[in-house]
Design brief:
Layout lengths: L2 H36 L14 E6 L9 H6 L6 H10 L9 E6 L4 H8 L8 E4 L8 E3 L4 E2 L2 H10 L10 H10 L9 H9 L14 E4 L6 H18 L2 H8 L3 H14 L5 H13 L7 H5 L4 E2 L5 H5 L22 H8 L8 E4 L6 E4 L2 H13 L17 H4 L10
Parallel strand pairs: 4-7
Antiparallel strand pairs: 1-2, 3-6, 4-5, 8-9
Helix pairs in contact: 3-4, 9-10, 10-11, 10-14, 11-14
Membrane topology: Single-pass membrane protein
Subcellular location: Cell membrane
Main location: membrane
């Protein structure tokens, strides 16, 4: 056999082997491609949403991942599998805190997770401080201290209010006209609230200080019911019913007295002011607190006028015996506990004698007058009112000294 014939056969075998290998590779690739076509694709929406706001809640102890089934059910994401994959790939997902978040309908899973980790999409909390009131307060010589109604409306409406927004007017109407039981008013306060008729302030003091999530999709009645119901649980945890009996007051009266402690007391003196209140009620003598005069005034400050103190209102303890008809603010748990456990003492008077908040407690009126002069000399009771507009009175000369500067 010639060398050329042998080479030809070798080349033919090589070409045959190569062709077979190529055919096998092509078949494998075809099978892989066919397998991929047959593999299920994880359903997912495209884009950042349809523009329709959806509010979702991450509850305490929960996580972003736990939202998956709910988001699918509500049409916010297409599939739980896509959402779980997106949540697992986002390092910030584990840092999301409980609260309400604004998403949109029909979001891609990645967009939904990115929205949840963006702090701008979290609904801000309603913060109620000790001494907060339902209505706004205008401070003489100062600004406006916004009330609980205004704070709720600001959170519910944001910077783009519409006709469905929960406004201050809607909240006031709900407070005035909704059955107290429906609002979640505790049983021991229902009669007192009902007695106030259609005054929106009839639920004053029944929203406890704290931080609350306000669901802007709720109605005014639903929001107030949520706040009052949760607050009732706060008050009950203090043992308010049993402890009220020990003080000789009803639970509602105890809450009302605690609101005076909140508005009258400097820090660290709650239990002593509570004792003064109880001593005066037991003497008996009128409480004569400027905070109760101020509650019904359009403009408020520590120094009240003779005319202010002469006004007969359901709250003015210069013009009426006993406690105000309702609380004058939201008392803190600390103020309520001070009324439940007042300090030991015979004090009937107290006065803040300097602008550092130093408060002196006295048993006799003569001692009290002496310390009151110190307060006047220190300018604690100076008025910022326009004296000509006030009719020429000098409120600082006649102001009730039993008044610490109220919390602003």
């Amino acid at each position: 056999m010639s060398r050329s014939s042998s080479n030809a056969r070798g080349k033919a075998r090589f070409i045959g082997v190569a062709s077979a290998s190529i055919l096998i590779i092509v078949m494998v690739l075809a099978l892989v491609g066919l397998g991929r076509l047959r593999m299920p694709v994880t359903p997912d929406f495209e884009g950042t949403g349809n523009g329709v706001t959806e509010l979702v809640e991450i509850t305490p102890g929960s996580s972003v991942s736990a939202l998956g089934p709910e988001l699918v059910e509500r049409g916010i994401v297409k599939s739980n599998a896509a959402f779980q994959k997106a949540a697992g790939a986002n390092d910030k997902a584990s840092t999301v805190t409980p609260g309400f978040y604004r998403l949109q309908g029909q979001m891609s899973a990645v967009s939904a997770v990115e929205a949840l980790v963006d702090p701008a999409n979290k609904v801000q909390l309603l913060t109620v401080n000790g001494g907060s009131t339902l209505n706004d307060v205008t401070v003489v010589g100062g600004g406006t201290r916004f009330g609980i109604f205004s704070d709720i409306a600001a959170l519910a409406c944001g910077d783009k209010p519409d006709s469905n927004c929960v406004t201050v007017a809607k909240l006031a109407d709900a407070a005035a006209t909704t059955d107290p039981v429906e609002l979640g008013v505790p049983a021991w306060a229902v009669d007192a609230v009902t007695a106030r008729g259609d005054d929106p302030r009839r639920i004053e003091g029944l929203i406890a200080p704290g931080s609350y999530v306000v669901n802007p999709h709720m109605s005014a009645t639903e929001i107030l019911t949520d706040l009052v119901t949760r607050s009732a649980a706060v008050w009950d945890k203090t043992g308010i019913t049993a402890k009220a009996e020990a003080t000789g007051l009803t639970p509602y009266q105890l809450l009302t007295a605690a609101s005076l402690v909140e508005r009258e007391s400097p820090a660290g003196e709650f239990d002593k002011v509570a004792r003064v209140i109880i001593n005066r009620l037991n003497t008996p003598m009128r409480l004569e607190f400027d905070s109760t005069v101020n509650y019904d005034l359009a403009d408020q400050e520590v120094a009240t006028t003779d005319d202010d103190r002469a006004r007969v209102t359901p709250w003015n303890t210069y013009a009426k015996d006993g406690l105000p008809d309702t609380p004058i603010a939201s008392p803190s748990v600390e103020a309520l506990e001070a009324m439940e456990n007042p300090a030991d003492g015979d004090w009937l008077f107290f006065v803040t004698i300097d602008k550092d908040g130093t408060t002196v407690f006295n048993n006799t009126f003569d001692e009290h007058l002496s310390d009151t002069q110190k307060a006047l000399d220190a300018g604690v009771l100076d008025s910022k009112r326009d004296q000509s507009a006030a009719g020429g009175d000098s409120p600082s000369d006649t102001a009730d000294p039993d008044q610490a500067p109220p919390a602003q």
